[in-house]
Amino acid sequence: xxxxxxxxxxxxxxxxxxxxxxxxxxxxPVCYTSARAEHLAVRxxxxxxxxxxxxxxxxxxxxxxxxxxxxxxxDVSRLAVGRSHYSYMxxxxxxxVDDIMIYRIEPERYLVVVNxxxxxxxxxxxxxRNSGEMACEMRDLRDPxxxxxxxxxxxxxxxxxxxxxxxxIADSQREILSSLPYTGIMRASLAGHDVFIARTGYTxxxxxxxxxxxxxxxxxLWRTILEAGSHIGVKPAGLAAxxxxxxxxxxxxxxxxxxxxxxxxxxxxxxxxxxxxxxxAEFIGKQAYIQKAAQATSKLVRFRMNEKGxxxxxxxxxxxxxRGRVIGTVTSCxxxxxxxxxxxxxxxxxxxxxxxxxxxIIALPERMPEPLKPFSLPGSRALMPDPATVLTRFPPKK
Length: 398
Description:
Layout: H1 10-15, E1 19-23, E2 26-31, H2 35-44, E3 46-50, E4 55-60, H3 64-71, E5 83-90, E6 96-106, E7 109-114, H4 119-128, E8 137-140, E9 152-157, H5 161-166, H6 174-178, E10 185-190, E11 193-198, E12 208-213, H7 215-229, E13 234-237, H8 239-248, H9 266-269, H10 286-294, E14 298-305, E15 318-320, E16 326-335, E17 341-348, E18 358-361, E19 386-390
Parallel strand pairs: 3-13
Antiparallel strand pairs: 1-2, 3-9, 4-7, 4-8, 5-6, 6-7, 9-12, 10-11, 11-12, 14-17, 14-19, 15-16, 15-18, 16-17, 18-19
Helix pairs in contact: 2-8
């Protein structure tokens, strides 16, 4: 454990009684009370997440837009100042390097947020392509060399997030924050801290914010937000709730619904609208991506187990049709707001699985038993599938 990195909030998490665990090379809080309580806090009030393990890059200069359009699939040229969008980086084979968020904070300056586990890999990949006519300045905002520009991410998510932030923001900026559109970003003074506030997040909540603050000020801001929102139910929330919330919302996780052992891409998971194959700029991997998309034979579905109390399916567990034929694979599963297990998985397009279909899932034990003939001896046990119902790909918007 000693080689795990820690965010500036590590001691604050310990003081709150957090259960810590490794994630992407970092020692992060899994939960403070229970994943379900923190999940419901986000859905009913607000939850505050430490996401300072995420990579934050500053890309700037006259070539910044052209560079990001070259390495990203979304159309950066159409991104207005004060807005953000979701995008992908693909390699030359059209496969996913990572999914990213791009925030345009000035005409020639962008914040790029990458996954914690991919941070070093992503930076190396970007720097290897940052040359020639499209070269621009790129800095790691978690590195002390960035000085006063250093930034890490805190996420305040849930319907009472805005009310909480309004108590802390400068009076002159309160109305701007109230009218900040979804995907918008603004610079602000929050409890005296110089921050960027973006209306984005990874929980499926529409009233949701990510706050980019200097790491030296992150502990003070974390405590101030929790104190200011305690009377309306704002709670600290860990990685377990973050996972169950994003799964309930149908959002992908790198290594599960993106890339990973199943080599999943945006065209598999219903996110191909973030790949602008018709934009003016030619992005890396475009032609290979188009070819692979045309040949895709599987799709991602969202499902809910029909009964409570069943074993939790994990990444790699089989999905069966009613005759017992394997038609797909579970990618994620967690408890939803009503206490049922809700998950995602890939299924063959030819299987005809649609919203309302019944599928069957075998939650494999962590340690598979030795091969045996399950029906040869009285009292022996066989693995039985549990039924689940296919939901809409994404939950209805609130």
